[in-house]
């Protein structure tokens, strides 16, 4: 079924939990999966060799959208990641009491799209505590 890369940025561990559930679900569906904390990745050629790339990022800031801090270098360098023509899906945790609920998810989808990725029009935006069942269902739908 191919190879998937799951890259996540998470400050308090919520998006990390979702990333782990997503990775396990894809494995259960027969994919070979590599799970990476964004703090340890470099943008250059990141997507090379993968059939599917999933980005997970929480949202910070108040009036403005701020990406989870470890994710910012990847976002800024995303043009070097080799996303053109790749299937990409985006997920993240947030809090709907903020103006830009999961705004980081929207920002990453938009940029990946601009770079020619085939962005799955099905973002996963989790409000509050991660819902593992929701994450499992989403990962299956992405496939
Ligand atoms: C100072 C602060 C600002 C935040 N800003 C937003 C926001 O603009 N939009 C949003 O959806 N969530 C916002 N959140 C909620 C976090 O994204 C949420 O707690 C999330 O679960 C954190 O995920 P993480 O543990 O993966 O980093 C904010 C939280 C804090 C503490």
UniProtKB/TrEMBL annotation:
SUPFAM superfamilies in the cross-refs: Flavoproteins
Keyword Transport assigned: yes
Cofactor(s) listed in the protein's UniProt record: FMN
Entry GO MF terms: electron transfer activity; FMN binding
Keyword Transport: yes
Coiled coil: none
Domain spans labelled Flavodoxin-like: 4-143
Keywords, alphabetical: Electron transport, Flavoprotein, FMN, Transport
Family, as annotated: Belongs to the flavodoxin family.
Free-text function comment from the UniProt entry: Low-potential electron donor to a number of redox enzymes.
The protein's name: Flavodoxin
Organism: Solidesulfovibrio fructosivorans JJ]
